[in-house]
């Protein structure tokens, strides 16, 4: 237990990976799915009114009549994918949460939507086809390490046809400047998000000099050793984002404040970029 406590309070090395991935844990994945599907919660997914506005805008700047084959990377339970399909895209969604993919597949079937869902790690995808358009929405890109971001850009580039488009968003330096380092703890006597049974939760927020933050959650329960979960975020300026995209061969079409088409502003908490192969 002493060693576990030391680990909880140590600042991890940059982009340290979790020993225990939480997205397929039976209990945690159910809580994540509930968070995704809550239209008023801005955590796992954005709020429903923004999603609807965003999907409508996306279909106007990258029209399904010209860019029909769409790859939705990190599709989760299919919230965007379903809207894309309803707008006329031929949609493939990929995600590494089995529960989310199972839910998305069932939901599409109930609505007679022809969407192909794949349970895969998108960093390793090899789909043997190319797409007209790809999306990576809600700042998932910045959750990756610098090496994994390079890998992802290469993978996406390979899966786009010449002239294909790629839309993604990231957190900005304005968001980074709002981040506070702190430590908190809570007791959940009847269970909560991380476990069904009672547990003690330690939360630590760390800044790193590379415009990176870590939200670390450590869970201690009576019958288990400590489980530690990491949520990394890398933050960008307009210039650093553009340079990173160009370094992997993408052309910059336009930069926005968000994936609903708000004009770019330095004070925005997010930056969205539309790219072309």
TrEMBL record:
GO terms for biological process: methylation. The keyword S-adenosyl-L-methionine applies. The keyword Metal-binding does not apply. Keywords: Methyltransferase, S-adenosyl-L-methionine, Transferase. InterPro entries: Methyltransf_25, SAM-dependent_MTases_sf. GO terms for molecular function: methyltransferase activity. Coiled coil: none annotated. SUPFAM superfamilies: S-adenosyl-L-methionine-dependent methyltransferases. Residues 71-164 form the Methyltransferase domain. PANTHER family: METHYLTRANSFERASE, UBIQUINONE BIOSYNTHESIS O-METHYLTRANSFERASE, MITOCHONDRIAL. This is Class I SAM-dependent methyltransferase.
């Amino acid at each position: 237990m002493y060693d576990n406590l030391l680990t909880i309070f140590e600042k991890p090395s940059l982009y340290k990976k979790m020993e225990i991935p939480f997205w397929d844990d039976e209990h945690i994945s159910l809580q994540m799915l509930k968070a995704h599907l809550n239209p008023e919660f801005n955590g796992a997914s954005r709020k429903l009114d923004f999603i609807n506005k965003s999907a409508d805008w996306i279909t106007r700047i990258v029209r399904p009549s010209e860019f029909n084959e769409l790859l939705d990377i990190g599709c989760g339970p299919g919230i965007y994918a379903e809207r894309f399909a309803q707008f006329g895209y031929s949609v493939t969604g990929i995600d590494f949460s089995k529960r989310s993919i199972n839910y998305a597949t069932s939901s599409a079937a109930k609505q007679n939507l022809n969407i192909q869902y794949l349970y895969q790690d998108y960093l390793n995808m090899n789909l043997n086809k190319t797409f007209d358009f790809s999306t990576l929405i809600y700042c998932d890109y910045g959750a990756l390490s610098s090496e994994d971001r390079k890998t992802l850009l290469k993978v996406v580039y390979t899966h786009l046809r010449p002239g294909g488009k790629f839309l993604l968003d990231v957190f900005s330096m304005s968001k980074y400047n709002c981040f506070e380092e702190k430590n908190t703890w809570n007791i959940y006597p009847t269970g909560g998000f991380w476990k069904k049974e009672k547990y003690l939760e330690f939360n630590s927020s760390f800044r790193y000099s590379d415009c990176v933050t870590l939200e670390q959650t450590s869970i201690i329960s009576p019958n288990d050793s400590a489980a530690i979960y990491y949520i990394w975020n890398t933050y960008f300026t307009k210039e650093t984002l553009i340079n990173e995209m160009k370094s992997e061969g993408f052309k910059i079409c336009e930069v926005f404040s968000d994936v609903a088409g708000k004009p770019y502003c330095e004070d925005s908490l997010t930056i969205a970029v539309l790219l072309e192969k």
